[in-house]
Amino acid sequence: MSRRSEGRDESFLSILIGILILLAGAAAVFYAAYKVSYVSVDYGIHVRIAGELDWSDPVQMLKEHPEPVWHILVRIAMKICGVDAQRAAGLVSGGLCALTYLTAAHFLYRAVGKGAITARDTAVNLSVKASAAASPGSASGLSLIGTAVFTWFLSLSSAIFVPWFNDKPYLGQGSPNPWHNPTTIMVRPIALLIFVLVMGECVRVQRGGFRKGQGLRVWKGFLLALLLLLSNLSKPSFVQIFYPAIFLLMFLWLFVYRFRNFPLGMQLLLCCVPSVALMGMQFISAFYGSTNEESAGVVFAPFKVAGLNTDNIAFSTLLVLAFPLFVGLCSIVRRTFDWTDAFAWIMLLVGMGEKFLLAEGGSRMTHGNFNWGYILAVYLLWFISIRDYAAWRCSFPEGGAKKALSLFFFILSGLLLIAHFVSGLYYLYYLIVLGNGI
């Protein structure tokens, strides 16, 4: 066998193994979500709503249930598969988690994988990451096997579990992968698509110098508007952090790029108008409507809800953000921190503001529903941090003390990632095997 033929065989084998690992990862998260649906405290009410959903009057349905997409999918699964609402709920949530896994793997591979060098227009393939993937030491970029493994870490990791501080893995800390809330599982793949689409267009226009005719492409504008509407109908928690974050980014760019981004900002604003209008109606229905008698509106309650399940909010926050925070600091030192990183952190800060400062009034205050935007922001930050870490693997300096130092901090980051991953496995054990509801 010739060396060239042998190389092709090895490449084919690597791709085949990568596909098998990807499928195994998708199957693993499907199974986890399916099993958790039988023990989660949040599923009972949502399964009941799905079983009783009356879509003969869509307007009344939206008034009573302003985020019905997951419930509609459950009803469809009940009819197609001939199963009860409980089993259909597990199938839908499992499928959505598998979809999120495969979507994240796709974008990660396009960003720093073997195809990253030619995929210049890919949303998360920014110039820094592309050059890292194309460096002499790693011309092939991240393999499909590596992509599958990194996405496993992304999809199963949780807050670092410190039992002597808090014996509950999720409560108090949160997680990039909350398994117990079906509507968050529903909106998460949509949030990832919107995040990638928006930053892809923003970075493309920015790299083009904001020249005339380089604005948001029309078909992507329509797609963004539709995805935002769909995210609203899935769970408004994502747009709660997206609207303020994209406004802050465009406002910052006005000063950085001397108002050249103003047309792009107006185009993005137009894309948001339909979902903003829908969110206004959802807000009134959820917090001030007659269909939600338990709610007493939105109140300003600094750290009241965030501190219900932890004795130290700052430490709990560190436990869920240790890996992204360390990778982010290393990216700043290495000068690879880009606008996509910045946008992810802006979304997190917006989510923190909502989680720490706002609450529902009345008996629903302890439900912590202003936490969900923060949880989605944590996942998106984790996605970008995994992207940066994978790119870092492909771009060590050439020899000397700089390479040794970079390798040292890379290993420290990896140890943090492993701690998060092992904690995530325990979190699933805590839910599925020990039968805890949250």
What does this structure look like?
By secondary structure, the chain is mainly alpha-helical. 68% of the residues lie in helices and 3% in strands. The protein is built from 15 helices and 2 strands. The chain has helices at residues 3-36, 43-52, 58-64, 69-81, 85-112, 127-133, 144-156, 182-207, 218-234, 237-256, 262-287, 313-334, 339-357, 372-393, 400-433, and strands at residues 295-300, 358-362. It has a two-stranded antiparallel sheet with strand order 1-2. α10 packs across α13 (339-357).
Strand order of the largest sheet: 1-2
Supply Rg: 22 Å
Biggest sheet architecture: 2 strands, antiparallel
Low-confidence parts: 1-10, 117-124, 126-139
Structural class: mainly alpha
N-C termini distance:
56 Å
Helix content: 55-70%
Total beta-strand segments? 2
The helix/strand order is HHHHHHHHHHHEHHEHH
Bulk shape: globular
The overall average pLDDT, rounded, is: 88
Per DSSP, what share of the residues sits in E-state strands of 2 or more residues? under 5%
